[in-house]
């Protein structure tokens, strides 16, 4: 079913990739993520929209601190701008 409701899509690049490294993906740049969340949250508030995203910043059971930082940022911008942010959890296939 088609809807006449406009949809907005944004891509935030907050990680680098280098195939020559043992661990090719860098950690998430929190300052870059925060700048992107600010802009997306502002736009969502202006357009009565919500933000939908996958869970990021959670590599394995050992390092959860980055996910907690991301989660605090999501909560902060949802509160400041009065929007809903939905995070989708999925399992990576091995």
Automatic annotation (TrEMBL):
GO terms for cellular component: nucleus. InterPro entries: ALC1 (IPR031053), Macro_dom-like (IPR043472). It comes from the Eukaryota. Its main location: nucleus. It is found in: Nucleus. GO terms for biological process: chromatin remodeling; DNA repair. Keywords: ATP-binding, Nucleotide-binding, Nucleus. GO terms for molecular function: ATP binding; DNA helicase activity. Belongs to the SNF2/RAD54 helicase family. This is CHROMODOMAIN-HELICASE-DNA-BINDING PROTEIN 3-RELATED-RELATED. It comes from Salix koriyanagi. The lineage of its organism: Eukaryota, Viridiplantae, Streptophyta, Embryophyta, Tracheophyta.
């Amino acid at each position: 079913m088609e809807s006449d409701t406009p949809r907005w899509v944004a891509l935030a690049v907050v990680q680098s990739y280098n195939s020559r490294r043992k661990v090719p993906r860098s950690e998430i740049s929190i300052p870059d993520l925060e700048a992107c969340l600010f802009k997306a949250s502002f736009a969502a508030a202006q357009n009565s929209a919500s933000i939908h995203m996958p869970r990021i910043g959670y590599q394995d059971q050992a390092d959860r601190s980055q996910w907690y930082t991301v989660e605090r940022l999501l909560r902060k911008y949802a509160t400041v701008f009065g929007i809903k942010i939905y995070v989708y959890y999925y399992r990576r296939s091995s």
